């Protein structure tokens, strides 16, 4: 039988790091050497786990500006929470992985956190985005047009903490699920391509000039 999951306060498990307040205009997709995780990307672009080797993470365009920042450099296992949004997506997070050899900062409207003890890769990112955790935020959200959540509110939220072995199993399961969803999304996007649809329609026309096999796919 697996051991019971512990119930802990987030503030007992994760320590808050320092972020910066650089705007999107100060970031670049091509210039600079220091990566910066913007809250808008946490909300829209990144999943529960951010693979720094594969993801498109912008950089601080000006290295001199980057060097003046007093925020903490992130490492694998750190969690970045978006503390501001236009809706109840506020509180969405991503867990950093494969960041070795890279200088990564947590940017505007984010809360970077670091585990105080060992956690299996992927567990925190998936768990902190789960309804079981995120729904605790709903009565704590502040604002009307722009919604935010405070550090003190986050610190008091309750976390479920299984054994590290169970954490690893949970993280691996959701990583596989995310990969499967991404694969099917790509297939769907390909089928929705106008050229693909045009070829399919053309294949169905009752004309000798439009005969094609059922496996016809768009070129390129």
TrEMBL record:
Recorded GO MF terms: DNA binding; endonuclease activity
Domain of life: Bacteria
Gene3D superfamilies the UniProt entry points to: DNA methylase specificity domains (3.90.220.20)
Keyword tags: DNA-binding, Endonuclease, Hydrolase, Nuclease, Restriction system
Keyword Kinase attributed: no
Presence of keyword ATP-binding: no
InterPro entries named in the record: Restrct_endonuc_typeI_TRD_sf, Type-I_RS_S_subunit
Name recorded for this polypeptide: Restriction endonuclease subunit S
């Amino acid at each position: 039988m697996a051991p019971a999951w512990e119930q802990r306060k987030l503030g007992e498990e994760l320590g808050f790091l320092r972020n910066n307040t650089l705007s999107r205009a100060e970031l670049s997709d091509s210039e600079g050497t220091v990566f910066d995780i913007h809250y808008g990307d946490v909300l829209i672009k990144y999943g529960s786990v951010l693979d720094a080797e594969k993801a498109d993470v912008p950089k601080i365009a000006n290295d001199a500006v980057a060097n003046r920042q007093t925020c903490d450099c992130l490492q694998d296992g750190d969690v970045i929470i978006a503390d501001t949004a236009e809706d109840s997506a506020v509180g969405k997070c991503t867990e950093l992985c494969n960041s070795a050899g890279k200088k990564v900062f947590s940017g505007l409207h984010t809360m970077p956190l670091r585990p105080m003890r060992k956690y299996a890769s992927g567990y925190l990112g998936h768990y902190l985005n789960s309804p079981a955790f995120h729904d605790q935020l709903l009565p704590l959200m502040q604002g009307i047009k722009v919604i935010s959540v405070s550090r003190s509110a986050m610190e008091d939220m309750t976390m479920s903490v299984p054994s590290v072995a169970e954490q690893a199993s949970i993280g691996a399961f959701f990583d596989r699920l995310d990969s499967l969803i991404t694969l099917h999304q790509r297939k769907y996007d390909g089928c929705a391509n106008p050229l693909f649809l045009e070829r399919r329609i053309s294949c169905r026309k009752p004309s000798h000039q439009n005969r094609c096999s059922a496996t016809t796919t768009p070129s390129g």
